[in-house]
Fold:
Amino acid sequence: MKTTRDALAAALAAEGARVEPTPYSPDGLTFTSRTNVFALAAFKQGLFEVQDEGSQLIAEACNARPGQIVVDACAGAGGKSLALAAAMQNKGRLVACDRDGRRLDEFRLRSRRAGVHNWEARTVPEGSAGERRIGDLRGMADVVLVDAPCSGLGSLRRNPDARWRLTPEEVQTFPPRQREILARYSDLVRPGGLLVYATCSINRAENEDVGAAFLAAHPGFSPEPVSTLLGEARAKEIGAREHDLQLLPDRHGTDGFYLTGFRREGA
Structure:
């Protein structure tokens, strides 16, 4: 919102921090020196946020534009919401939803630091009570991002102890919830609008299988090519498949994120 990548790199260099451009995200920088990033003046001024490059690509794949209605269905602390707001240039309407209102409180603090003001927060519980909280948006959104609750298996490089805390039985509880959340928020997409589904998982049951089940139950949606979401050259460089992308730590240097998109038929 407040700067460019080149200008930020210069500002960070002036503070003694060493950075280099991210290879895939057009807006990212990677710290190459040990740095307390939260103590930097550039951070306190809202010039940047800390976010995995994979998360940046997911937000970019939404292709949010100024003046649109954009819904972040599982916003959490709002990292991807901030990236969406930047793409919208503070113009339009950004609705950040989460079942845990306390997580949205953190987004409020981050949005003030970043200078974001085109957003609203909604606590949306699971079940019928949640339907009423988003009913007014049905068929209205140009873009809906569902970064669904998941096993987090894609973040084991940063949280290796999770393998001892996560049981196979717990992993199996996520796909039914993911299918329900994706179906619920798909109702908000306008004809011709875009629905993006993402997880931080490398588990097929949470990724490809959820997408396939959604398409089978929602014939009004069709898969969107990754080359449309991220551009043909970059999709090829990253190694995306035609209709989805699995990022891997050993190949891309990111967390193990998954993304796919669906276009609602009509205009």
User: Anything to note?
Assistant: The chain has two domains: 5-44, 53-264.
